Amino acid sequence: MTITDNKGVPGKTLDICQIKEYLPHRYPMLLVDRVLDWEAHKSISAIKNVTANEEFFNGHFPHKPVMPGVLMIEAMAQTAAILSFMSIGVKPDANSVVYFVGIDNARFKRPVGPGDQLRMDIEIVRCSRGIWKYKAVGSVDGAIALEADLMCTIRSASDASQPMGN
């Protein structure tokens, strides 16, 4: 495994222990299993292995298990957060919070269920005034399952009660 600096040199992979260094999420909300590749300030590819043991399948839906769209979007946002932290060369601390500030153009093309491997490809579109904008595509076996434009911001917990702006 090679992880490079934040000067735009491509990295290779991150395993789950390394992912946990960049995300505060833990079970059952940690939705990124492996980073396949990343390039600072540009893009990241990661996977979520969808298993029959996921708690949400008990109710969504017992007769035909489908991963909720909101969780697929959350998995892509978590992937985007990893890229943002790696791009700025910072590992979050207990005072770091990443907030979703917008989702545009979300489209769901096919269901994702147990046994699928959701591949998330995220590109940074821009970062301005602390708001990161990304183009996100999720696919299974090469077929697009969802796509969306995401916006997030990184804040300190002490600033968390302040308005996030536009």
From TrEMBL:
Residue spans crossing the bilayer: none
Signal peptide boundaries: none
Source organism superkingdom: Bacteria
Coiled coil ranges: none
Active site: 60
Catalytic activity of the protein: a (3R)-hydroxyacyl-[ACP] = a (2E)-enoyl-[ACP] + H2O
Compartment(s) where it occurs, according to its Swiss-Prot or TrEMBL record: Cytoplasm
GO molecular function: (3R)-hydroxyacyl-[acyl-carrier-protein] dehydratase activity
UniProt-listed CDD domains: FabZ
A Pfam family matched in the record: FabA
GO biological process terms held by the UniProt record: fatty acid biosynthetic process; lipid A biosynthetic process
Principal cellular location given in the protein's record: cytoplasm
UniProt keywords, alphabetically: Cytoplasm, Lipid A biosynthesis, Lipid biosynthesis, Lipid metabolism, Lyase
GO cellular component: cytoplasm; membrane
Enzyme class: lyase
E.C. number: 4.2.1.59
Function noted in UniProt: Involved in unsaturated fatty acids biosynthesis. Catalyzes the dehydration of short chain beta-hydroxyacyl-ACPs and long chain saturated and unsaturated beta-hydroxyacyl-ACPs.
Family the entry assigns: Belongs to the thioester dehydratase family. FabZ subfamily.
Protein name: 3-hydroxyacyl-[acyl-carrier-protein] dehydratase FabZ
Gene source species: Massilia violaceinigra
